[in-house]
Amino acid sequence: MQEYVELGETLIFFAMGVASVLAFAVFMERLFYYRRSLGKGNESFLLEVRTGLQEGKEVNWQTVVRKESIYFKFVQFALHQIKGHRKGLEESLEGQILTEKLELEKRLPILNTLGNNAPFIGLLGTVLGVIKAFYGLGTLGSSGAEVVMRSISTALLATAAGLAVAIPVVMVNNFFSRKSKVILQNMEILKKEFLSFEMNQGKS
Fold first, then answer.
1. Is residue 12 exposed (0-12), middle (13-18) or buried (19+ Cβ within 10 Å)?
2. pLDDT (tens digit per residue) in 79-108
């Protein structure tokens, strides 16, 4: 039994190490993706586009914005749909928003899963450590106090490791989820502006 408990403890710490590496890899990938997808000058770009659409005139691209920007691609897509006089503009824009949503939220479930389950993995390590401590206490008696204390210390370390992984992962997941929500809300605003623009164009 003691051998299985020690093996379980080793696997717990190995799992925590893998989880931390995986979480860091996802964090870096998402960070580069969001930086590439947003670029600079987005606030000015959005304001310029909305102003142009509300005034019912062609949008002037005076603001410098990276062409990889998710907003730039969405505006280009909408203008292409309008200039092509394609039907179902609302459905097309909604489909584009859903497509971008899938990309924005890609791999975030990994962070969510790690953040929710890392404390429980650490708790399992703690339980195994306590089992090991009581087993040593029963086997060695009072003479094995040092061994028992080391086992309890290792058990508590497992819980600390679980929390050390979970807390930053949850913070990172919340950060990217918030970013994604803001981007999607801005795209919803642009969608409504383009629908209004098309309606006014049709009346004129």
1. buried
2. 888 887 777 889 999 999 999 999 999 999
